[in-house]
Write a structure and sequence with these properties.
- Helices cover 42% and strands 12% of the residues.
- It has 384 residues and is an alpha/beta fold.
- The longest helix is centred in the last third of the chain and has 33 residues.
- It has a single domain, classed as TIM Barrel (Alpha-Beta Barrel), CATH 3.20.20.
- The protein starts with 7 loop residues before the first helix and ends with a strand.
- The protein is globular and about 60 Å long.
- The structure holds flavin mononucleotide.
- Flavin mononucleotide binds next to β11 and α14.
Length: 384
């Protein structure tokens, strides 16, 4: 990893150079007019700090307990479908970087690398993100597979009931199926390192990448459209489904996609162990509220009864501390770690996490806090 990458924006630029445009925009951009994406940055910037002075911060500690497990950083790696397209078996690179940092890695339903391979190649805590399919029985088989692979935490994503409108993917030919086009071909040819180190390695090892968590009969190549009704993401999921999942899954259960206090309250009643307050990185509903703005009301509704994880738009360690001060117990990192993976695989993802860690350590010191338990709402000002 080049030392010129001094912050996540630098890492993002390295990723942009390395990846074909279609893939870079797929990971980097938002939905529709990307007002939500710009809003994430504005929302973080609108929160300011009230630093405390003359507090001994010589021994700063970023450790926390997440879902009953003590870890050195208040972070987890978010599930990102097709992470294996930014680096050969990018999911393994992410899992190893997470393990090295002592934080969980959440495997996506839309992973290019099978959970069996990820579990064999890394020794850190693994979570599994579930997209519920139209045919529930197939999803239940998938969580059985997760259980057999030692996955301890299941994350149900509830905010993706429609196909997000991302017009740049259509223009870039990066819809599933990926269309062969002259511009797409030129895009790839102008990124020979990616062709050589990612695409050709898959092809040499057996062909075009596929979604490894789809049932064998429904496992389309990424170049072919999956038209099977059975594995369409359901748009009919309700709180009853969540309760049924709670019955079936004995491990930790996390509900991802909460932005309303009343939904947070219902999640507590349904018996989940944590919620993820997220706008899906502003990739789904453009104009959805930024999680940092939704957090205070949600934290109040939850009242410490279950864990609160937050994500979307984190680019600096200080962003993480703002989320923690406003009620999150930990934070998920999506694109920042993907940029690192795209730039340099496991070392790149590790570099991105290290940047965030060092920024957090400095900001915590400036705030006059020695550990994360001291952080509370008195350290931040939110716009009215
Ligand atoms: C390329 C990409 C793919 C994603 N795929 C999924 C997914 O399959 N399931 C899911 O729950 N969230 C998915 N997400 C959302 C992330 O889990 C997370 O909520 C979001 O990326 C956080 O914002 P950040 O990327 O700005 O950190 C994806 C995000 C990205 C960038």
């Amino acid at each position: 990893m080049k030392t010129e990458a001094l912050n996540i924006e630098d890492v993002r630029k390295l990723a942009r150079r390395r990846l074909p445009r279609g893939i870079f925009e797929y990971i980097d951009r938002g939905a529709e007019d990307e007002i939500g994406l710009a809003g994430l940055r504005h929302a973080f910037d609108a929160v300011t700090f009230n630093p405390r002075i003359l507090a001994d911060v010589s021994q700063r500690d970023l450790s926390t307990t997440l879902l009953g497990r003590k870890q050195p950083l208040p972070l987890a790696i978010a599930p990102t479908a097709a992470a294996g397209l930014v680096w050969h078996e990018g999911e393994i690179a992410l899992a190893r970087a997470a393990a090295r940092a002592g934080i969980p890695f959440c495997i996506a339903t839309g992973s290019i690398t099978a959970m069996e391979r990820i579990a064999a190649a890394s020794n850190g805590p693994l979570w599994f993100q579930l997209y519920m399919w139209h045919e529930r029985a197939l999803s239940f088989e998938l969580i059985e597979r997760a259980r057999k692979n030692g996955i301890e935490t299941l994350v149900l994503t509830a905010d993706t009931v429609a196909t997000p409108n991302r017009e740049y993917n259509t223009r870039n030919g990066f819809e599933i199926p990926i269309r062969a086009s002259l511009s797409g071909g030129l895009d790839m040819l102008s990124h020979p390192r990616w062709v050589w180190q990612v695409l050709l390695r898959y092809i040499r090892a057996g062909g075009i990448p596929t979604y490894q968590h789809y049932p064998p009969g429904f496992r389309s190549r990424i170049t072919r459209k999956a038209t099977w009704e059975q594995v369409r993401l359901t748009d009919a999921m309700t709180w009853d489904d969540l309760r049924e999942l709670r019955q079936r899954w004995n491990g930790k259960l996390v509900l991802k996609g909460v932005l309303r206090a009343e939904d947070a309250r219902k999640a507590v009643e349904a018996g989940v162990d944590a919620i993820v307050v997220t706008s899906h990185g502003a990739r789904n509903l453009d104009g959805a509220i930024a999680p940092i703005r939704a957090l205070p009301a949600i934290a109040e509704a939850v009242g410490g009864r279950i864990g609160i994880i937050a994500d979307s738009g984190v680019r600096r360690g200080s962003d993480i501390l703002k989320l923690l001060a406003l009620g999150a117990d930990s934070v998920m990192i999506g694109r920042a770690a993907l940029y690192g993976t795209a730039a340099a695989g496991e070392a790149g993802a590790t570099h991105a996490l290290t940047l965030l860690r060092n920024e957090m350590l400095a900001a915590l010191g400036f705030l006059g806090c020695a550990n994360l338990r001291e952080l509370d709402t008195s350290f931040v000002n939110t716009p009215s």
